Each structure stands twice: as structure tokens, then as C-alpha cells.
Amino acid sequence: MTELDELMKQTHSLLRGGGEGTIYDFGNGRLAKVYHPALRSDYRSNKVKWLVNHRFSGEFARIIAWPDEAITDHGVIVGFTMPKLEANPLAELLNNDNTFTVDWKIRATICRNIAAITTHLHREGIVVGDLHASNFGYDAGTGKVVLYDVDSLQFRDGKRLYLCEVAHDDTRPPELAKIDLSRTEALCEDTDNYMLAITVFQLLIGAHPYAGTRAADRASSESGILSRAALEGEFVFETDKSSVPVYAAAYEVTSPAHDLFKRCFIEGASDPNARPSALEWENILAEMAREEMAICQTHGNYPARMSSCPFCEAKSPVITTSACKSTPQPIQQKGGKPPGSASTSPNDSALGIVAKIVLGILAVVVGITLLPVILVFAVLDEL
Ligand SMILES: [Zn+2]
Hints:
Helix content is 36%, strand content 15%. By secondary structure, it is α+β, with helices and mostly antiparallel strands. The model is unreliable at 215-221 and 318-360 (pLDDT under 50). The site of zinc ion (ZN) has 6 residues, from helix 10.
């Protein structure tokens, strides 16, 4: 154990504040998380104690920011130290403009590695809970993945249950839509499997599986609407291809995983038992990363079974307004119009520019031609 006073005498910088506590960087590959005073409790202390006493070894220990030492303040556990795992934030790939900047083979490997971490934790009886891209980091060269926020994992110590108390709205399965996670054991392997499938789909296709649906009002990311779309089984990539968002890559690029996607997003939307396990995802994604590849000059590797690069076909989304939780806005389709709008198309705009240039030239020509005539009339008027 490390005493907080002693720890803070060492050279450090503030890495991140907010949330449950403050994270300090000691510049030697070590971080410390210190909980806010209001959040310190026996429950949280015991959770940290369990984590510190159940550290992993080998390669797995190097890809997970597992607490390695409790931090105490006058004998009370108030936080923990952990390794600093350098990686790019995976959530940056959920931005539609960024998704395809990373090579397909690497993205399939990233997804495989997220599934492998999940499988490993499930075998240990641990639920990830808030399985979301924002809790992972990645290496763009190798597809290696690391897991952060380990103290939010959910597990049992004998009869005592340590909950994961939060989950992102955009990956919540329908059965959790209105559940207070801090009060009940709602998260489990089935919910992890659903969140894993959503994350895999987003990273491979560049769109949310329930985006582009009728209920979701064209690509809204508002959670309640996505949950409703899920309950209604509106996985349009299988059920209504005309409603698929234009910014998504061709669904066929993921064809080896289609059975798994159907089991999760159609059957599994209302039946948690139908969802594929993390191990099934790990296996299929490993196969997809090993497929024969063709090369696109812009996007690198893509599966050679595709007739052309599926990522060149996907169109960039144009966000018409900033994201707003309470008033979801449609994403304007490139070259098209959002529902109910009267916006002009790029072709209309181009015609407008040409017309303005022609009118401008005409105005100058007419002006030069008429100027001598006006001057003559002015002189005659003077006379
Ligand atoms: Zn391409």
C-alpha cells in the first residue's frame, strides 16, 4: 500500500479530473487514481482491495490497466496505482470521418482483440459492464488493444457483488434502457456480448447497427430511439437495405459475421440468450483478419472477395447541427436532403456559382459598353 501524502510528494502532473476521481501521471509509466472524498466508502475500498489481490500475470497483465497497489489516507483506501498504457483512444474511430482511416485488417484485429479481452474476463467470472470504445485504446500499426477503467468491472467476491454502475447509452441493450445500474445486477455476460457486437459493427462498418432506421429517424444517436429501434428489430442492414446510411461501408464486407450480427441485432434484441458469445466473436474476427486481402491506395487492405474497395464507396456524413441529446438531428446525406428539409444539393450550388460568374461578366461588359454613351449624353446635356 502507498500512503497518499507520500505519493503526492513525488513529481506528478494532473492527467484527468472529473468522474469518480482524479488521475495523476507520475511520468515513470505509473498512474494513480484518487477517488473524490464524497465517493470514498467501504464498498469502494473493498472493491479496490479485491482488484489488487487478483492481478493477472503474463501478456494479459500488459494490456489491461489493472490496479496494482492501493493508496491509503490514514489507513483508509482512497484510490490505487496502475500502469500507464500508451495507446490511441479507440473512441476516435467511432467518428464517421475517422473510421476508415485505419486499415481494415487492423480494424478486424482490433475487434478480435476486444473480443479476446472480453472472453478472458468472462472466463474469470468478471463482467466488463460498460463495454464501450471509450474504455479501450488501440495501436494503429498492430491492432493491439488495451483496456482502461478496470475499477468499473463487475464481479463477485463470495456473496458480495461489486457492480459496474454505468453504461454508455449508445451501446445499452434494450432491456437496460430504463434500468438504474447502481441499484441492481442488470449487467451480465449477455449485455457484454450485445455491447461487444455493437462496438465491432461500428468499427467495421462505420455506422451504428440501428442507425438509418425508420424509428431512429435516419442516423440519430439518441439512446432511447436506438433502443426502440432495437426492440422493433430494425436492423436495416438485413431488413431494409434502402434505409442504410450512405456513410456506412457495404455490409457485405462483414459477410463472414452476418449470422452473428443477425443473432445479436434481430433475435438477440429481445432474447439475450440468442446473442453470440465473446469467444464466437473472437474466432470469427480472427478469421476475418486472416482473409486474403486486396489493396486500395487510399484505404489499404480490404477483403479480396469484394469486387472493389468498400470504403471508397462510403460517403462522408455532413452533420447539419451539433450533437444534441434532447433534440436528435438527422445527419444530412451527401448529395441528398435530410427528411423535410429544402436544402440545396451540391449540383444546385455549383450551378449557382456559375450563374453568378456569368452575371458578373455580363454586368462588367454592359457597364463598359454603356459608359461612353452615358458620357456623350452627359456632355450633350451640358451643352
Ligand atoms: Zn478505398
